[in-house]
Amino acid sequence: MKAHLTYFDGRGLGESIRLILYAVGIEFEETYLQDAAHVKRLRQAGDLLFMQVPMLEIDGMKLVQTNAIIRYIARKYDMYGKTLEQKTRIDVLYDGARDFIMKFLNIGWNKSMEEDSKDVKENAVPRYLPVLEKELCGTSSGYLVGDDLSMADLAVLESLLYCDDYFPAVLEDYPKLKEFKDRLSSLPRIRAFLNGPQRKRKLTEEDILHGKKVLAWLYQ
Amino acid sequence: MQVPLLEIDGLKLVQRDAIIRYIARKYGLYGNTLDEQTKVDVLYEGAKDFLFSFMSFGFYGDDEKVMENIKSKTLPRYLPIFERLLSESSSGYLVGDGLTYADLCLLEALLVTEEYFPELLSDYDKLKDFKVKISSLPRIKAFLEGPQRKRKNTPEYCGTVKEVYYKCSSTSFQLQELVTKRYFRNLSGLVVLPCTCTTTD
Questions:
Q1: Strand A28-32 to A3-7 pairing
Q2: Do B39 and B100 touch, CB atoms closer than 8 A?
Q3: Which residues are registered as beta bridge partners of A70?
Q4: Nearest residue of chain B to residue A120 (CA atoms)
Q5: 3-state secondary structure labels for all residues of chain B
Q6: Is residue B35 within 8 Å of A76, Cβ to Cβ?
Q7: How far is B179 from chain A, CA to nearest CA, in Å?
Q8: Residue B125's CATH number
Q9: Domain residues for B180?
Q10: What's the pTM?
Q11: Rounded Cα distance, A169 and A149, in Å
């Protein structure tokens, strides 16, 4: 059964949803926000509970809030651990990885791409990578929690892919993370996403300039 | 180094939401079906965005701008939405028939709204009733009137937080809110443990 994602034609918060949809094997179509009038129509139709995107139509629901969408899919497709302890550990690692991803999502929106990148490289990277490397050292299955792929693995993977994009050599110092990233990227469904047409490209300065206008639509 | 840090049941938990979800799962505040859990997650995230719009107050020297933003964007967005959700509920709770952590987060957002903009809640009868109803639950009442309830941000508090963060970690600066977890502590009758923060120079 197909799902339908409404978001911008870009990575942002939507990319995390795209990744997990592929990872569990749910096909989906996309609607990209066109302009302020489009946003207004969606809001008036009552499709956006909190007047925001992403919004995922799935199983008869119109879900909003990125974390809630991802948790719904993870719960349904067994990517949220089995025991209370596993679920808790997944939450901790997932939330931490999301914080890390957000640092990358803000690059270019704060001061400039150059300054924001520098800030992430000097501050976020040395804060998160050693912690994540240590977490992987503590596992035997090759997954962060338990014996199977979980939403925490996908969030960490996404953050490592951003590391690769912005700071190509930085993972050389973190062999477990590098191996984890390579291995998970090669899982058939994840590889199909990363090499496929629904994977969005990295933002450029121009995209950010345009994006600032686009975001203004959401705040009218 | 990260706070909040909650030591509970032999675990040392970090990440505010993970802590809240742990307690909610264990004590039955997370909804009973997959459908309810999904709703709780969605409404919690929305209530959190609402609450977090107040979070930076007192920290960045732009309080007027923050307040203006809350008044012109945050409140006109979230108050009508939650008013409508409550009017669609027969139980008086946001999801299902009982208290969930989505209700607690909304309560927290309404309490802080009342502190800064009391007059702006006057048009929202369901929200006012909800605030009274949840605040009056015995354990929550005990928290709100008790010694562990913290007060509004003061310059001294903001100064301490900034100093700790700049000394303890990199310049990236995250604010976390401890209050919501304390609701849970009282709801489930647990003894509150002190939050620890170690600093390294």
A1: parallel
A2: no
A3: none
A4: B172
A5: CCCCEEEECCEEEECHHHHHHHHHHHCCCCCCCHHHHHHHHHHHHHHHHHHHCCCCCCCCCCHHHHHHHHHHHHHHHHHHHHHHHHHCCCCCCCCCCCCCHHHHHHHHHHHHHHHHCHHHHCCCHHHHHHHHHHHHCHHHHHHHHCCCCCCCCCHHHHHHHHHHHHHHCCCCCCCCCCHHHHHHHHHHCCCCCCCCCCCCC
A6: no
A7: 19
A8: 1.20.1050.10
A9: 5-200
A10: 0.90
A11: 26
Q: Is B56 exposed, middle or buried (0-12, 13-18, 19+ CB in 10 A)?
A: middle
Structure tokens, B111: 């309490």
Shortest CA gap B45–chain A (Å):
6
Q: What is the pLDDT of residues A150-177, one digit of tens each?
A: 999 999 999 999 999 999 999 999 999 9
Would you call B41 an interface residue with chain A, using a CB distance cutoff of 8 Å?
A: yes
Q: Distance between CA atoms of A203 and A193, rounded to whole angstroms?
A: 18
Task: Tally the domains of chain B.
Answer: 1
**Is residue B186 over pLDDT 60?**
no
Residue pair B134/B79 in contact (Cβ under 8 Å)? The answer is no
* ipTM for this prediction: 0.92
A82, A72 in Cβ contact below 8 A?
A: no
Nearest to B41 among A68, A95, A103 (CB): A68
- Tell me which residues of chain A, numbers 132 to 161, contact chain B at a CB-CB cutoff of 8 Å: none
